[in-house]
Amino acid sequence: MKKKLLYYLLLISLTIVIPYLTTMILISITGDRYKGMTLAIIPGIVIVHLIFGLIAIKLNWTKKIVWTLVLSTLIFGVVFLMLTIQLIKSNLGLYGFWDITLSNLIAGFVIWESFFLISNKLQRKTS
User: Fold this and answer.
1) pLDDT range class, residue 2, cuts 50, 70, 90
2) Is the whole-model pTM more than 0.85?
């Protein structure tokens, strides 16, 4: 249980830090705040789950990479849907950074936890 808590604390940290860093880097590269923020949305969402999956999934490297890519793509799709229907509207900040972050975190929690629960059940059945 402690290990899972640490993993989810890592997910929370990554969900806040990675989008912020990618946004700052792309604003610096483009020289334009709005353009840099726009370009940072997709990598800011996906990189979080790529890093998390490579750390948290305990399978061989081939399966780890495949599942990380599949789940990262799924999470991105869910976050996009959540943002499109404005499921979370926090009104924190001018640019919706926190709406994206909260959507990414919630989608990540639900999908990663579902994956781990299903994976554990399947491993118990084969053992």
Assistant:
1) confident
2) yes
